[in-house]
Task: inverse folding
């Protein structure tokens, strides 16, 4: 059995072209580009030379990347700030740049309104507590499942509970009040209505 020859290491110019093509497909952080070039068996000095060249030519800017990333997540995915900050960390954006981008983008955003938009667009729920649904009928597992999903979407637990309680008292949920189990209030009150430590800095 013949062994497969390993690909030769690329020189700095070739690595630069690899990075340009990758950035043309989608925006990336400096750390993501470094990881990509490392997969090409590039030496550390060559990688740093390429990173420096990309920054000098305006192709790589982590602050700009973070701002665009956060704006996209708000507009297209309706994600809460906790989720977005976590995703920036996964892309190894420096914490200070991530915090600045998140703080600036969410400064004028009403998180409760964003959560309502998320429910309507992502879950197609105009009224999550509609008594004609399993969720609206007060099934604890359905309420807790929605709560966990909204947490994963990046919303603070106190915002989620507050919004569910607001909807609980809305006109649509009152329409079926005679048929709703009393345990709805018990389920809502059992959810942790406290700010998430990870989100308090923003």
Result:
């Amino acid at each position: 059995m013949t062994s497969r020859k390993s690909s030769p290491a690329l020189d700095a110019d070739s690595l630069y072209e690899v990075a340009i093509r990758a950035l043309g497909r989608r925006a990336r952080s400096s750390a993501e580009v470094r990881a990509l070039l490392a997969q090409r068996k590039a030496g550390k000095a060559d990688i740093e030379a390429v990173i420096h060249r990309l920054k000098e030519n305006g192709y790589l800017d982590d602050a700009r990347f973070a701002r665009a990333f956060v704006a996209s997540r708000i507009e297209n995915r309706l994600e809460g700030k906790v989720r977005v900050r976590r995703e920036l960390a996964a892309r190894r954006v420096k914490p200070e740049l991530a915090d600045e981008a998140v703080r600036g983008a969410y400064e004028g955003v009403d998180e409760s309104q964003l959560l309502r938009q998320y429910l309507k667009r992502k879950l197609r729920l105009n009224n999550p507590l509609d008594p004609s649904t399993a969720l609206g009928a007060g099934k604890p597992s359905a309420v807790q499942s929605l709560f966990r999903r909204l947490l994963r979407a990046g919303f603070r637990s106190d915002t989620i509970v507050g919004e569910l309680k607001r909807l609980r008292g809305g006109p649509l949920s009152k329409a079926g009040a005679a048929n709703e189990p009393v345990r709805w209030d018990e389920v809502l009150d059992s959810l942790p209505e406290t700010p998430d430590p990870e989100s308090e800095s923003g």
